[in-house]
Design brief:
Blueprint (H helix, E strand, L loop, with lengths): L6 H20 L3 H4 L10 H20 L1 E2 L9 H10 L4 H13 L4 H20 L4 E4 L2 E4 H18 L8 H15 L8 H8 L10 H4 L7
Helix pairs in contact: 1-6, 1-7, 1-8, 3-5, 3-6, 3-7, 7-8, 8-9
């Protein structure tokens, strides 16, 4: 289940995934942003605001450096994330997300904020080194950036746009799902692998033992 991602692999994948997600959002007009996403109960705009909140947390992680050894890697991070999410009331969280989204006067305001924070995240990731504290865990820089490249790939797919996430981010997302599932997935399509791995599509029949360990991503 161990997945350790070198920083020279994770950093460009992270940058690609941020740029790809921003481009996908910029391609949606305000009416389209108010349409349904792939996440049950969320609009596309809810996804945008959720990502924006995540990027603000990323900025905190990028400046929270430590000499302590890592406590999780690019795969096991998702286990701690899932354990924390299991204690949440999904309906209460959905309603809280709607309130966060409603704090913006209109969709374009949220997109402008996303663009500004995204630029800061890209600058921070470009110079990140050492190890980082994030949500109570310590991650090596490569693993930290890789987990967010995976997060971006999933939420890019949630936007239901024609353009797929960058291949570098999809490859990391697939590798993460396979590490958590304990083996390779029986599909050559990275998008399908990530959608199933993230619970956005049902596990197809015939996926055997690895299928029983899915979904693996939050």
């Amino acid at each position: 289940m161990v997945l350790q991602v070198p920083v020279d692999v994770a950093r460009p994948a992270f940058a690609d995934s941020v740029s790809g997600l921003l481009a996908a959002v910029e391609g949606l007009d305000e009416t389209a942003l108010l349409g349904a996403s792939r996440c049950h109960g969320w609009t596309r705009l809810d996804v945008v605001v959720h990502v924006l909140g995540g990027w603000q947390e990323v900025l905190g992680g990028l400046v929270s450096r430590t000499e302590e050894p890592p406590t999780v890697d690019a795969a096991t991070y998702w286990l701690t994330f899932a354990a924390a999410a299991a204690d949440e009331d999904p309906v209460a969280e959905l309603m809280a997300q709607r309130r966060r989204t409603a704090s913006y006067a209109r969709p374009s305001s949220a997109v402008a904020h996303l663009r500004a924070v995204g630029a800061a995240v890209l600058r921070g990731a470009a110079v990140a080194d050492d190890r980082h504290v994030f949500q109570g865990d310590v991650l090596a820089t490569g693993d930290f950036l890789a987990t967010w490249a995976v997060e971006h790939a999933v939420h890019h797919l949630d936007l239901l746009v024609d353009e797929a996430p960058p291949s570098s981010a999809l490859a990391l997302a697939r590798a993460t799902v396979e590490a958590l599932a304990g083996g390779p997935l029986p599909t050559g399509d990275d998008v399908e692998a990530v959608l199933v791995g993230a619970g956005r599509r049902p596990v197809p029949e015939g996926w055997g033992e690895v299928g029983r360990r899915l979904p693996a991503l939050g």
